[in-house]
Amino acid sequence: MKQVTSSIELNDVRLYAYHGVLEQERRVGGEYSVSLRVHYNIYKAMESDDVADTLNYALLLDIVKEQMSQPSNLLEHVAGRIAKAVVSRFPQTEAVDVTVTKLNPPLGARCAGAAVTLHLINDKTQA
Q1: Contact (Cβ atoms closer than 8 angstroms) between residue 113 and residue 104
Q2: Could you list the active site residues?
């Protein structure tokens, strides 16, 4: 068998955080959703069935929680911090996709959320 792509994901992690340009957003906070896909070679874990051979999604969740706990003006900044922290902690990461969604943005209209999605490629893993 030949492996083409593989990843581990955290989907729709719900957190309360204090991000936003408006002072009210940073003081009162709001609900956010974070989805994370980390691309890496899972072949060794697939064969060994050993957690030491994979990216531990509990540790990925810790990264998301830590970065979301640091207030920022922009969702772009938060998504970038999450992606960079993942690559720093797991250097075997080939790429990271992060979506940060503000679930109730102050837009004056009802919507399911305002989001930023980032795709970051770890150039140190590229041949």
Answers
A1: yes
A2: 102
